[in-house]
Amino acid sequence: MDENEDVLVNVVQGVGLITLNRPKAINSLTHPMVNAISPVLTDWAADDDVQTVVIDGAGERGLCAGGDLVALYHSARADGSVARSFWYDEYRLNAQIGRFPKPYVALMDGIVMGGGVGIAVHGSVRVVTDTTKMAMPEVGIGFIPDVGGTLILSRAPGLLGLHAALTGATFGAGDAIAMGFADHFVPHASIAAFKEAVIADGVDAALAAYAAEAPASQFLAQREWIDRCYAGATPLDIVAALRAEDAGPATEAADLIEAKSPSSVSVALEAVRRAAKLDTLEDVLRQEYRTTCGALRSHDFEEGIRAQVIDKDRNPKWSPASLAAVTTADVEAYFAPADRELEFS
């Protein structure tokens, strides 16, 4: 097998090993990486000699920080075709992971955001550690939560998923398990030994030896005010409710939301609510592909990446500039059919 240098693939004792290998970029996903992983999973699904798959990231910083934003920015400035093609194949890979017929063990150590969530959380054995920093931070770059993330956000306890989606806030192992992004906690110091145990003894024995009690969920502890505030009909209602709470986490949440793209926050709220009524990961990914193409047509996606990644001035000029200025028609436009709808083979 020709190994893409950015993805290392190996089979050891019946365990298929995939390592994302762009440590300087926190293993951010590129289109060639997506196209390297998918055929490997197809082969392994049909190979009786491969019993289990383990995916992890090279280096100390994390599994995967998301997609390659610089490439997406340049595509957005051109005709968008490179970005659309990447997302099309990425979402098909997310679905492929979701229906993979064998144990798929994702080691979510360190940073796991955006596209990194997509290659991990649809697997069957999702492991977090005390260094896990997870987020769906898309609204901060004029984008919408994707990679099947809105499926999990929509099914989190109460309205915790809306809190994560609209603030883009980072959360740790306890919150990841509480919200349905992960299943097991293994201490960071044991993660290498855990991986070796999966290879030597199998998933169940490795979990029995190394899984521990996860830290308490901060989000669950705050669920009372989260459920109350995020029940608002519109983003404006939600921010007003947050501002009406005692100073502290609710005020911080309101500040976070108001710093994000008003369009993205408005669409993310609608996307998570619609995802709650969809039945399958594939259905949700089809909807996400529409909202993603909608973001690509918007002003805020290019501007958000410019401010955060290209110029790094951290001062995006959103348009519309406020939540009050975003119309129902603006939001609906993101859910319009894509020129080429996402399909699964």
Write the layout of secondary structure elements.
Blueprint: E1 7-12, E2 15-20, H1 31-46, E3 52-57, E4 62-64, H2 69-77, H3 81-98, E5 104-108, E6 111-113, H4 115-118, E7 125-128, E8 133-135, H5 149-155, H6 160-167, H7 173-179, E9 184-185, H8 191-201, H9 203-210, H10 218-221, H11 223-229, H12 235-244, H13 249-259, H14 262-275, H15 281-297, H16 299-310, H17 328-333
Parallel strand pairs: 2-3, 3-5, 4-6, 5-7, 6-8, 7-9
Antiparallel strand pairs: 1-2
Q: What does this molecule look like?
A:
The protein is globular and about 60 Å long. Helix 5 (149-155) packs across helix 14. Strand 2 (15-20), helix 1 (31-46) and strand 3 form a beta-alpha-beta unit. The mean pLDDT is 97. It has 345 residues and is α/β, with parallel strands linked by helices. The chain has helices at residues 31-46, 69-77, 81-98, 115-118, 149-155, 160-167, 173-179, 191-201, 203-210, 218-221, 223-229, 235-244, 249-259, 262-275, 281-297, 299-310, 328-333; strands at residues 7-12, 15-20, 52-57, 62-64, 104-108, 111-113, 125-128, 133-135, 184-185. It has a 6-stranded mixed sheet, with helices on both faces. Strands 4-6-8 form a 3-stranded parallel sheet. One of its GO terms (cellular component) is cytosol. Residues 15-335 form the Enoyl-CoA hydratase/isomerase domain. Its EC number is 3.1.2.4. Keywords: Hydrolase.
